[in-house]
């Protein structure tokens, strides 16, 4: 059973930064990334890193968020800079054995951004 454990969420003011971490029981995923869900909204993709090294981001976070991973530590990171109130929500780590599907989800970590 693959396990994903997020950490690093918290409360910041707009313009601030947070770094989320996702510790996994393995790191050989085809797709490994971050999703978020704000209250009353659908879960949306933030960005993912693929096995070939490609990293894709949602347009709304491009230039502000950076995904990286440390394969030796089986850990994925999400560096979030210039945070906006609309970035608030529950952030989930997710991984897939293929590029098209998500097979594993973490429990989520809450991010709050105050204006």
Protein described:
This protein has 115 residues and is mainly beta. 0% of the residues lie in helices and 52% in strands. It is built from no helices and eleven strands. The strands form two sheets. Strands 2, 4, 5, 6, 9, 10 and 11 form a seven-stranded mixed sheet that branches. The protein has a four-stranded antiparallel sheet with strand order 1-3-8-7, with no helix packed on it. A hairpin with a 6-residue loop joins strand 4 and strand 5. The protein is globular. The termini are far apart. The relative contact order is 0.33.
Poorly predicted ranges: none
Beta-strand residue fraction: over 45%
Please provide the ordered H/E string of secondary-structure elements: EEEEEEEEEEE
Helix content: under 10%
Mean pLDDT: 96
- For the termini, the CA-CA separation is 40 Å
Q: Mind summarizing the main beta sheet?
A: 7 strands, mixed
| Number of distinct helices | 0
Structural class: mainly beta
Overall, the morphology is: globular
Give the helix/strand layout.
Blueprint: E1 4-7, E2 10-13, E3 18-24, E4 31-37, E5 44-50, E6 55-57, E7 65-70, E8 75-80, E9 89-96, E10 104-105, E11 109-114
In brief:
Helix content is 0%, strand content 52%. The strands form 2 sheets. Strands 2, 4, 5, 6, 9, 10 and 11 form a 7-stranded mixed sheet that branches. By secondary structure, the protein is mainly β.
